[in-house]
């Protein structure tokens, strides 16, 4: 890992003792979460990290490529305060931080993002329901799921997600879903 990613992992470990921003307990577990976040990812487009907690998976991607147009959303003010503090300590340019229920931001950000990424926010259907509203038609949702996860197509009134590739990581799999063009 790069020095800034090591610093982030150390800060996440330090602050997780104050508030539970990640389920990981040891430095090694946090380091693995950071490494598992570093997937091959498009180098442009607007990205929303939905249910970000302590910044996973979005902050490692942003630290690796700070020109990404990244936004972080979590309903927990405490978690977002910790994320803001971590960003301040890393001395990097501030990405967009959104604190509150996801539905609160729909009037401004509906159909705004090219990608939604999420890890540990909940069941696939629950996350895709929220992702659909924020994604442009043709946008993709990248979901960090348990190792061996098998994605299925997902349909609701007004939108369809087709399951695409699964990217195996050390402790998880990243399932990629595409929102069908013209739906939503």
For this structure, the CATH topology is Rossmann fold
Strand content: 25-35%
- What overall form do the CA principal axes indicate? globular
So how many helices? 6
Helix content: 25-40%
Strand runs, count = 8
Radius of gyration: 15 Å
What is the CATH domain class? Alpha Beta
Number of domains: 1
The CATH architecture comes to 3-Layer(aba) Sandwich
The main β sheet shows up as: 8 strands, mixed
Describe this entry's structure for a reader.
The chain is of the alpha/beta class and 184 residues long. The protein has a single domain, classed as Rossmann fold, CATH 3.40.50. Helix content is 33%, strand content 30%. The chain has an eight-stranded mixed β-sheet, with helices on both faces. β6 and β7 form a beta hairpin. α1 crosses α2 and α1 runs antiparallel to α4. The longest helix is centred in the N-terminal third of the chain and has 14 residues. The chain is globular and about 45 Å long.
Secondary structure elements and pairings:
Blueprint: H1 3-16, H2 27-37, E1 46-50, H3 58-64, E2 69-74, H4 77-90, E3 96-99, H5 106-109, E4 113-119, H6 124-134, E5 135-146, E6 154-156, E7 159-168, E8 172-179
Parallel strand pairs: 1-2, 1-4, 2-3, 4-5
Antiparallel strand pairs: 5-8, 6-7, 7-8
Helix pairs in contact: 1-2, 1-4
